[in-house]
Write the structure tokens for this entry.
Amino acid sequence: MPSIEEIGHRIAEELKKHRADHIEAHLEQTVSSHITYRGKELESIGKGSGIGGNIRAQVKGGWGFTSFNNLDDLPARIGLAVKQANLAGNSESQLAEVPPVVDRVLAGVDRMPTDIPLADKKKLLDEYNDIIWRTPKIQTSVIGYGDGYKKFIYINSAGSFIEQERADVTLRLMAIATDGSEVQQSNMSIGSRGDFSRIENLHRDIEEMAKRAVELLSAPQVEGGEYTVVLDPVLAGVFTHEAFGHLSESDFVYENEKMHQIMTLGKEFGGRHLNIIDGALVPGLRGSYKYDDEGVPATKTYLIREGKLVGRLHSRETAAKMNEKPTGNARAVSYHHPPIVRMTNTYIEPDSVTFDEMIADIKEGVYARNWYGGTTSMEMFTFSAGEAYMIRSGKIAELVRPVMLTGNVFTTLKNIDAIGDDLDMNEGGGCGKGEQSPLPVSNGSPHIRIRRCLVGGK
Amino acid sequence: MERILEQAKKAAEAAEVFVVTTEEAPVQFEANRLKHIQSRQSRLVALRIIRKGRVGYSVTTDTGDISSLVDSAVETAEFGTKAGFELPDLANYPEVDTYDPEVERVPLETMIALGQEMIDAVRGNNADIICEGGVDRDVISVRILSSNGGEASYRKSIFSLGIEGSLIRGTDMLFVGESESSCHPLTDTRAVTDIILKQLDWAKEQATAPIKPLPVIFTPNGVASAIVSPLMVAFNGKVVLQGASPIGDKLGKPIFDEKLCLRDDATVAYRPASRPFDDEGVPSHSTALIEAGVPTSFLYDLQTAALAKKQSTGNGNRHGGGLPSPSPSAFVIQPGETTFDDMLADMKEGLVVEYLMGAGQGNILGGDFSGNVLLGYKVENGRIVGRVKDTMVSGNIYKLLKDIAAIGSDARWVGSSLSTPSLYFPNVSVASKG
């Protein structure tokens, strides 16, 4: 069978024969492995490989899209995508101008995670699982390790031909403690852009995680209501992603006049200390890349600068329709889906407040750390902490059950009244949007303090 | 496929090849207009072997390279878990209808017209609403071959309608969505749009929730978003085997309200979650999980059943091409006799929860849930008075399901894997901005 590079060159020739406003192709080749533990024993170990691609065409503003594993008969598939686009088209095609690019981007990883022997990976996970099981009162554990290497090619009718590689590593651990019918859990989630060493030497963190699950059994639940809340960098990163990041994805805005009014550039969203950035150009993170899935060079985009809305994330189509510059944020989770506007590495820039200053004048508040998850509906968002402590009279006090926080983005960002000096990025998460999940992203922040944040509780 | 099995048999005591082929053809509307027409083809081949008593596994979409698929399975078998099961005979399946050839024959023009009809209905009374939606037509084929000579296959057709409307006033946003799916073609869009129109009507006014425990009705969508995920985990035989399920030692004990009956059912004719056998070839069942408030069974695949000394319940599912693992097919909560209106009439002050955002993000194992009432209503003196916002509802499903005020007669499918009526609880914790 020919390589995907050879197939790519054939497609590039074939695209010239079809008439559409725009045609592009993606080809992808992957290898992956996974190991999971459930309890003391290894539960599942497996390896995977894949090959596939898609053709996307635009005619009169309508999109045709066909995806496939079977790489035979590609001319017919190009024809099908063009035909679909013709059927869907009912207005005018608009795509931001991007110069054609021919480039090759390597994974940039010294030790390819998929090449590391399974025995070595298993040995590390055995060590981690032993630590969890050594902790008294632990009922059981769940560990999920996954890695992948992907080579993908982007080709379009304007002459772009971009080969890129990327590698990915994720590790999730959960310790579960029980006492009668009471069950509590604690989690850890780590990821990297292919750097296996990032998941090594976590023994001490895992020991603490396991102990926390046991401590939660006797921890009280917070009384529900409004609190002054301090978020650690990990949770503040999730907050930034959910509360504001999704709102700056232009596909929610570009054809919705009312949403556009809400998201007018220049509008004040927070205090002058608030700066929020998204950018795949920030190097070495899980959301980093050189070109997006429309062949647009990655950028670093200020979304909020000194409290004011100054930018948003674009695909070529949303940029053209809003008459703004493309930002290189069109991403697809795999060749099975067309690219849509997504975040990459999203974070709050550090300010100067130390952690001690931040909690010093809080009489009663909540210090929330780590994450379970988060979600948004644009206006409202929720995110949940993996661990939480009461703050009493300026000091960190007792451990409480993990809390769920919620708010309205338009008031909550303004209620951030302190931003720390200790930016840290969280690479353990994956982002879901529509049916495309999990997309590798990172997010981060320094510690932040939010006044009047609604906390769920008893 | 046969060649994969032949090669694998040479390297292992037992082997099984699982192939799933999917053809999807969605049409999608954005901002009230037709925007995308797609066709997606995919094929996945998974090889499971038992070698020296251990399970090896590999999966690929690239069927050009059989040797690497077999080599990978052999490599992983060195570390794999000890196989406690034997591959099934791949015979004696129940008759479960999942394929209607009419689905493939629905013309693209009809699908586009159905989508437009939904958008027109939702925007009929309010042109400020912006709709996204779609009509989807899928055909899935599953085939299993095993080294003990057996072979089994089935085909499934799925037709689905979905629409979401957003209404923005100032910075106030309202999102209302609904969907329906079947193995038959769907022709009546009103089942979907009527529910949306009712929500839009209820949400016209705004109301404020107090900070105190209140009676709460969870509608079928509300039950799906808040109550069901912890149960799906708790009845998983693997979680039970690990000792991590809070109901693991409660079989036969009345721990839920006696009105509550729940089953897992992969045999309902022409439902998208139905099938004659699971992803490892075990016949499908309807398994009673809760009868009159008493847990009666857990869900098993072959390996977990072997370790727990039980029988597989036909719940071996491969998610994303992984090894089979127990998970629900379709949860069916038995409807009660109380109408939704009677539940409302019973409430002096309370809430109706249609969608609780973020409820699945907490300590699911322990049954705790907490979420933002993204779509929900205040009830005063038996009447819905308006939409509540900035409101959180929290609780523990095991405490709630011990005392159910009423189970609705309004059961319906929510997505493909849950059929539920509304559930009415007398006392649920509510926090709000007041």
